[in-house]
Design brief:
The protein has 306 residues and is mainly beta. Helices cover 7% and strands 30% of the residues. The strands form seven sheets. The protein has a six-stranded mixed β-sheet, with no helix packed on it. A hairpin with a 2-residue loop joins strand 11 and strand 12. The protein is globular, with a radius of gyration of 22 Å. The relative contact order is 0.12. About 5% of the residues have low confidence.
Length: 306
């Protein structure tokens, strides 16, 4: 594949400074039957995500400006999305193509640069367009909304030897680090706080300590953008909401996105807002898909403007 940006200056030609490429929709993993030469994997055993990247995060070495990938063809028209990550921005293209087994394909793909938007309105609620994340590379650190909806910690990655914790291998039961676990799902769900989008409920002060057991106790209350000093009985007589400067527990999303000079911030949604979103998506789609990373540690977010 060669990539060229929509409306890009013709003098730039094809995109060459590529950090990584992710393709969603092409079959990358299946179970092969040696007896009859067929693929027999169940839907849960198949994977449809390809990541092209160097382990040391250096730029991809192109061959005559091409990025090469191998995948299992469906011998049918296949819908896929390709996303190209560069230092100058993120580019994407969704397309459909007939892929047959035993063929090589050379494609010049025109991709469009993603323009981040602060929110999208669904069911009269302003929803964030990506996960709430913490990302750090070198001296640069970011707390906030991911630049794209599909930005998920270690998305498309399978655990390797380098991801071991305390000499124990990581096990997976799905795609991405949100489905990684150790032993009996003991909560150490990822191995670095530098690429994180799962957070303990109501924890602010210890959010980057992955071995911490800190969380905000209680279920009979709504976070509603509040901060607390104590763990138990939030909203009760001994644990009333406090100012941001005193926050130890509470809404980590609002904590890191409410800034001076900005006329909006993000916060956790209410249960009613999540249920409303689920209902409207269920009516519009044959299969409901809602932007929730994980129920226990969910950080779906809504935007508040003022």
């Amino acid at each position: 594949m060669k990539f060229k940006a929509v409306n890009g200056p013709s003098s730039l030609g094809f995109i060459k400074d590529i950090d990584s490429v992710k393709i969603n929709g092409l079959r990358s993993y299946d179970v092969f039957n040696l007896k009859d030469g067929t693929f027999v994997g169940t839907p849960d055993e198949k994977e449809y995500m390809i990541t092209v990247a160097n382990k040391d995060k250096s730029k991809i070495q192109l061959q005559n400006d091409y990025v090469w990938v191998a995948f299992l063809a469906e011998d049918a028209s296949t819908n896929f999305t390709v996303t190209v990550y560069t230092q100058s921005g993120v580019y994407t293209k969704t397309a459909s193509k007939l892929f047959n087994t035993g063929f090589d394909y050379h494609s010049n793909i025109t991709v469009e640069k993603i323009t981040p938007q602060p929110y999208v309105i669904v069911n009269n609620v302003k929803w964030a367009t990506g996960n709430f994340i913490h990302y750090k590379k070198g001296s640069q650190e970011y707390w906030g909304i991911a630049p794209a909806q599909w930005w998920i910690s270690n998305y498309g990655d399978n655990p390797s030897f380098d991801n071991r914790v305390d000499s124990k291998n990581i096990v997976k039961n799905g795609l991405g680090s949100q489905n990684w676990y150790i032993d009996n799902h003991n909560g150490r769900y990822t191995q670095t706080s530098d690429d994180l989008d799962l957070f303990r409920w109501g924890d602010i002060a210890e959010a980057l300590n992955l071995n911490s057991s800190a969380y905000l106790g209680g279920t009979g209350f709504s976070m509603n953008g509040n901060y607390y000093k104590n763990k138990l009985f939030p909203g009760g007589l001994g644990n009333r909401p406090v100012d941001k400067s005193q926050a130890i527990f509470g809404d980590i999303v609002r904590y890191h996105t409410e800034k001076s000079g900005r006329n909006y911030y993000y916060k956790y949604p209410t249960l009613a807002q999540l249920e409303g979103l689920k209902k409207i998506v269920s009516r519009r789609c044959q299969h409901s898909v809602i932007p929730i990373r994980a129920i226990k540690f969910m950080v779906s977010t809504i935007a508040i403007t003022y």
